[in-house]
Design a protein that fits this description.
With 168 residues, the chain is mostly helical. It has helices spanning 37-69, 88-114, 120-131, 137-149, 152-167.
């Protein structure tokens, strides 16, 4: 440690500079508190959830369009078309609807994380567990989300971030 007045070397356990006598404790103003682990990752996690949800929404809308335009009017193509793929219309509609619900919940989770909403932590944990099955990007996002939000210490840090946002 060095004295900021004269530049002399001051041992860490010494309160006053040996050369000029300046108080060394007062020389170091209190710095801003270091951001905790959760606060430093919430913004990135929220943005990633918004991006993945946008991709899910595009996929869901594509499935719904294909299900309702091609397979919704399958019998209208005429008698020469085999009747086999009739089950594809309801199947693709159900899968597209499920993906759309997943995308909406992901948008909600991303929005809640960016705004430090108190309900967003639990929603993101549930969505991260469901995302683990979407290899490879969903798995990576699910692991990252669980690593940031799942430990018990993370709950306290998230509450402090939410309360800090309420005070400001």
């Amino acid at each position: 440690m060095f004295c900021d007045r004269c530049g002399a070397t001051v041992p860490a356990d010494q309160r006053y500079c040996g050369r000029c006598g300046k108080d060394q404790v007062a020389a170091f103003p209190s710095a801003y508190p270091a951001p905790n682990r959760v606060q430093s990752h919430l913004r990135v996690l929220g943005i990633l959830w918004l991006a993945v949800s946008a991709l899910n929404a595009v996929g869901a809308l594509a499935l719904l369009v294909v299900a309702n335009t091609v397979f919704g009017h399958w019998r209208a193509f005429g008698p020469q078309v085999p009747p086999g793929p009739v089950f594809l219309h309801p199947l693709l509609t159900i899968i597209g609807g499920a993906l759309l619900v997943k995308a909406l919940l992901g948008f909600l989770a991303g929005y809640g994380l960016l705004n430090r909403e108190p309900w967003a932590r639990m929603l993101t944990i549930v969505m991260s567990i469901l995302a683990l099955f979407n290899i490879p990007f969903g798995t990576a996002l699910g692991i990252y989300g669980l690593w940031v939000l799942l430990p018990a210490e993370s709950e306290r840090e998230y509450e402090r971030a939410w309360r800090g946002l309420q005070v400001a």
